[in-house]
Amino acid sequence: MKKCKLLLLAVSVVWGGFCLSLGTNHVMAAEALDKAETVEMEENTYAVSDTAYLNLDWLAGAGNEDAATILKLIGNRTIAVDSSLPDYKRINNMNQTLRRINYDALNLYCLANGYTEIMELGCGYSPRGIYMCERGKNYTGCDFASVVRDMRKLTSYLTPQEKKFLHYKMAGVTSGAEMQQAAQEIKAPMCMVSEGLWMFLGNGEKKKALENIKKLLDAKGGCLITTDFSFKEYGWNVAEALYPGHGDAIMDETVELYDVVSRDDMGKNLLKSPEEAVKLINSCGLRVKRVPLIYGNYEMDPYNCLSDDQEHQLLNVLSEHYLWVITSDTKRP
Predict the structure, then answer these.
(1) Alpha-carbon torsion (302, 306, 309, 313), positive or negative
(2) pLDDT given for residue 41 in this prediction
(3) Residues 1, 87: contact at Cβ < 8 Å?
(4) 3-state secondary structure at position 224
(5) What is the pLDDT of residues 261-298, one digit of tens each?
(6) Which residues of the chain have pLDDT under 70?
(7) What are the beta bridge partners of residue 190?
(8) What pLDDT shows up at residue 12?
(9) pLDDT tens by residue, 246-267
(10) Angle of helix 26-61 versus helix 88-112 axis, rounded to 10
(11) Which phi and psi (to 5°) does residue 143 adopt?
(12) What sign has the CA pseudo-torsion 181, 219, 213, 190?
């Protein structure tokens, strides 16, 4: 497996060194420990921000105008990927295509099923809020404070009427209290959306998040939709459609790239199989229905960048059951 190296640019975070003296000054030791925990929390927040920026950059590169708007809003301040990486062009093309299909698939599901209340978990810099409020849907995006502060600036791009539909809340999926507070004003039923979230949570965090989601679905009704639990097979099929015979290499390097950006081990957090994911979800009192990504017609190649065979293979991917619709055992959508 090739090593992926990224250049982290524009965000300068300088950590001051400090000494921890054990056994001689308990106050100083406690203060140093608090500082260490604060540094770790801030570093995790920057990692989330960087990962969100990478996904935004890929979506903008795929031609999404709302994503390009957000890029201008927050500025080129987070990361830049070293384009001299082995196979970088293929990694870039595959992930741009994957991001565009995935973004559209989740949006279309919300609209096709008549949801007017959308709550996005770990929203990052997703332009979904713009998309939904332009269509008169209430949108609540949830994430860490640094991301939420950036995304609240979006109101400057919206009409007074559209602003009424757009809300951003500081809430992490593993905090039941924050999730409850974020959903307090949401009307039932709601469609909860997560994109690029679950592969960055450990198994304990996944279980806690699912338990929190269960409580919200019991109270509000609706569902959670995501393709994260199909990430390996879904990504591999998109890569194979674009570059036959190279799916394994492209997916390996994509995972390594995310590892560097997220300061984490994504491979460690990925569940081994869809069956394992279903078992975990069921254990939290939730049920799973897997459906095709997109029903009906879809403009796969709006910019005439694909060969006929690539377009045909990607259209076949749309019929795969990679979209997970998760509901509560005790509350129907």
Answers:
(1) negative
(2) 35
(3) no
(4) strand
(5) 877 777 788 888 999 999 999 999 999 999 999 999 99
(6) 1-48, 76-86, 331-333
(7) 222
(8) 26
(9) 999 999 989 888 888 877 777 7
(10) 80
(11) -170, -170
(12) negative
Could you tell me if 53 and 67 are in contact, meaning their C-beta atoms sit under 8 angstroms apart? no
DSSP 250-269: HHHHHHHHHHHHHTS-HHHH
Whether the CB-CB separation of 262 and 43 falls below 8 Å is answered with no
- Which bin fits 324, alpha (ψ -120 to 50), beta or left (φ > 0)? beta
As given in the structure block, the two tokens for residue 209 are 């998040």
Task: Give the strand order in the sheet containing 222-226.
Answer: 166-170, 138-143, 117-121, 190-194, 222-226, 323-328, 286-291
Q: How many angstroms separate the CA atoms of 100 and 175, rounded?
A: 30
Q: What ranges in the chain are assigned the alpha helix state H?
A: 26-61, 65-74, 88-112, 128-134, 145-151, 160-163, 176-182, 203-220, 231-242, 247-262, 266-269, 274-283, 308-318
Query: Six-digit token pair at 254?
Result: 């994509």
Structure tokens at 261: 């950006």
Question: Length of the chain, please?
Answer: 333
CA–chain centroid gap for 36, Å, is 27
What type of residue sits at position 208? K
What do you get for the CA distance between the two ends of the chain, in Å?
A: 43
Rg (C-alpha) for the chain, rounded Å, is: 20
| pTM of the complete model | 0.85
Amino acid at 85: L
Tell me if 266 sits within 8 A of 199, measured CB to CB.
yes
Please report the sign of the dihedral spanned by the C-alpha atoms of residue 322, residue 327, residue 332, residue 333: negative
Distance set, CA 2 to CA 75, 217, 244, 255, 284 (Å): 30, 42, 19, 11, 38
